[in-house]
UniProtKB/TrEMBL annotation:
Purpose of the protein: Part of the ABC transporter FtsEX involved in cellular division.
Predominant subcellular localization, coarse grouping: membrane
UniProt domain ABC3 transporter permease C-terminal: residue ranges: 183-301
Domain FtsX extracellular: 56-160
Record's keyword terms, sorted: Cell cycle, Cell division, Cell membrane, Membrane, Transmembrane, Transmembrane helix
Similarity annotation: Belongs to the ABC-4 integral membrane protein family. FtsX subfamily.
Keyword NADP: no
TM segment ranges: 21-41, 179-200, 221-254, 280-299
Organism: Streptomyces hirsutus
Membrane topology: Multi-pass membrane protein
UniProt keyword annotation of Cell cycle present: yes
Protein name: Cell division protein FtsX
Length: 305
């Protein structure tokens, strides 16, 4: 097979079906951009889970005098020194506990004043209304129920709270967004495949005379199919290159510049450029193989070679 012939046929095919080729390029670019974005979002969620779950604390809030009148868990009154000592001692004996930090009412009051200084309640609260607590760092954040079961309902304990529950809601939202992006990507991918098949068939129909002559002179099936498959592969590869460009620009604009989330949200560990670059070969390979395979199977039936 002469490479010059194949290349010339590719150029002819792309020019003849310029509008449909453009539609293929755009649909492939958009679908693969969504595909790459969903992969990166999944990496981001995984990175955030590793970062935040490592910092998750379980908090055991102790009863104070005001709780005794309003909270049924504190019906026996405010926590005593003996009860605090027993709670701390039991916590330190638990193998799932990494460290225990005591927070007094004065410390809780100062923290509240710092974090919610603009709140109208800040001026009316007093230190004795705040709750003492133990902040527990677990070796495995998934073992929260071990602490909750051991201390929930104990005398002097108002409640046991796990920060992981709040984070789970956030990560659930992000994963839902990721699934939505994958669903849109799948739809765009189906549209792209349909466009590729139609483009290849239109191209084959417009050159049916040439392909008929080639069959008569004994040209092999692959020799006849090669230009059409290559056309689809080239159009897909252009779309894949655009998708890679969109991902690179998007990451730079959203995280580094433009929105500059890395500066505005310092508490979030954003994925680096290495995570983006490792996805680009997969996107390019998909953009090349997907149209080529779609064209191959479409031509097998259409050309009957």
């Amino acid at each position: 097979m002469r490479a010059q012939f194949v290349l010339s046929e590719i150029g002819v095919g792309l020019r003849r079906n310029l509008t449909m080729t453009f539609a293929v390029v755009v649909s492939v670019a958009l679908s693969l951009t969504l595909f790459g974005a969903s992969l990166l979002l999944s990496d981001q969620v995984t990175s955030m889970k590793g970062y935040w779950y490592d910092k998750v604390n379980v908090s055991i809030f102790l009863c104070n005098k005001s709780d005794a009148a309003s909270d049924p868990n504190c019906a026996k009154g405010a926590v005593t020194e003996d009860q605090k000592g027993q709670i701390k001692g039991d916590l330190e004996k638990m193998t799932v506990v990494d460290s225990v930090t005591y927070e007094s009412q004065d410390t809780a009051y100062k923290l509240y004043k710092e974090q919610f200084s603009d709140s109208p309640l800040a001026s009316s609260l007093t230190p004795d209304q705040m709750q003492e607590s133990y902040r527990i760092k677990l070796k495995d954040p998934e073992k929260y129920k071990v602490v909750a079961t051991a201390f929930d309902g104990r005398d002097g304990v108002q409640s046991v709270q796990d920060q992981k529950g709040t984070l789970d809601n956030l990560f659930g939202l992000l994963e839902g967004m990721n699934l939505a992006a994958l669903a849109v990507m799948a739809l765009m991918l189906i549209v792209a495949l349909m466009l590729i098949v139609n483009t290849v068939r239109v191209s084959a129909f417009s050159r049916r005379r040439e392909t008929g002559i080639m069959r008569l002179v004994g040209a092999s099936g692959f020799y006849i199919q090669a230009p059409f498959i290559a056309e689809a592969a080239v159009a897909g590869l252009i779309g894949g290159a655009l998708a890679c460009g969109f991902l690179l620009v998007g990451r730079y604009f959203i995280i580094d510049a433009g929105l500059a989330l890395s500066e505005k949200l310092n508490l979030i560990s954003f994925i680096g450029w290495d995570a983006v670059l490792t996805k680009l070969p997969l996107i390019l390979a998909t953009s090349l193989l997907m149209p080529a395979l779609a064209a191959f199977f479409a031509l097998r039936k259409y050309l009957k070679v």
